[in-house]
Amino acid sequence: MSNKNFDSCVSFHINNGAFLGRIVRLNNVLDKILGKHCYPLDVSAALAETTALATLLSSLLKYEGLFTLQIQGNGPVSLLVADVTSEGKIRACSTYDAEKLASAKALRKTENQIEALPHLVGGGYMAFTVDQGQNTQPYQGVVDLQGKTLTEMALRYFKQSEQIDTTLKLFLKHPEGESDSWLSAGILLQKAPLKGGKTIQESPEDLAQAWEDAEAYIQSLTDNEIFDEGLTSADILYRLFHANNLTLGTEKSYSFRCRCSRDKLLNTLRGFKEDEIESMLEEGKITLTCHFCSEKYVFDKSELSKH
Ligand SMILES: [Zn+2]
User: Fold this and answer.
1) Measured in angstroms, how far is the CA atom of residue 34 from the centroid of ligand 1?
2) Per residue in 19-53, pLDDT tens?
3) Which end of the chain is less crowded, N or C, counting CB atoms within 10 A of the terminal residue's CB?
4) 260 CA from centroid of ligand 1 (Å)
5) In angstroms, how far is CA 299 from the centroid of its own chain?
6) Nearest Cα residue to 124 out of 72, 80, 81
7) Three-point CA angle 137, 68, 131, nearest 5°
8) Dist. CA 222 → ligand 1 center (Å)
9) C-alpha to C-alpha distance for 156 and 26, rounded to whole angstroms
10) What is the pTM for the complete model shown?
11) What is the distance in A from the centroid of ligand 1 to the CA of 66?
């Protein structure tokens, strides 16, 4: 399934610009990413949710380059990575231990259900980085993993590091019944920073009430609504915020693309020591597989010594 209403992020503001938001809905991007791997259902689900969050977070930043969201833990799923280029190209992958995952699920008696991401990753940290190329200082934000859901984990970051009032809801739908497609989505709303002489017309009390109402609207959004193929993201926003002076901003499209290449890998291999190369050789060849897209690259020993 490929749906024109998905794989995009729409920015918006409500209450005369007092609150800024984003809505992301992913489908084809996820099918492409997850189709490149044979992850267990839980790992695919965790990665689909991570990818929606990464897309939302990247859309909040102005950058030229690469945004990466990385969740690293001591649980059966030790790594979840999603990166988003400023051109809207997304890739994602995970590292997990199948045996540990199976035994943890058996212990918790959750073999037939998808567990929330925090159970799978355990303790660790979540990091956001923005790499804008050479001669620029990479931006980084880090928060330790705490919370019952990925949403709670991410909100902790906003509270601690950014100190911006934020509300967020993430959604996930796995292939089931007639649908063989993955869907994930997220909606985020933040209080706009008051700077540059900007004024808000409402009184502080009215504004606090408006924020509470907006949070409640977001929490009322259901899986059925956000994953309704017949609805555009604008339709969903109008349903939620038609009484809040909704203004739509830009819509950005996303697609899957891996940035690996033969040349990049060859360069990396040429940086290896001779004994390291020797240990990787099999019948005079080295085979490398990209973690992100599972593409296999075969190198002949003779290529590695060229300069
Ligand atoms: Zn790749």
Assistant:
1) 13
2) 999 999 999 999 999 999 999 999 999 999 999 99
3) C
4) 4
5) 32
6) 72
7) 20
8) 34
9) 24
10) 0.93
11) 15
Tokens of 192: 């706009």
In sequence order, the 6+-apart residues with CB closer than 8 A to the CB of 178 are: none
In angstroms, the Cα distances linking 213 to 10, 12, 21, 114 are 21, 17, 14, 31
Q: How far is the CA of 37 from the centre of ligand 1 (A)?
A: 12
Cα separation values, 253 from 11, 68, 70, 250, 256, Å: 12, 18, 22, 10, 11
Residue found under tokens 């992100």: 292
Q: Separation of 280 CA from ligand 1 center, angstroms?
A: 20
Q: Identify the structural domains of the chain with CATH numbers, from first to last.
A: 8-256 (3.55.30.10), 262-304 (3.90.1280.10)
C-alpha 120/C-alpha 148 separation (Å) is 11
Tokens of 273: 């020591």
pLDDT digits (tens, 9 = 90+) for 175-214: 988 888 999 999 999 998 766 555 666 788 888 999 999 9
C-alpha 181/C-alpha 32 separation (Å) is: 10
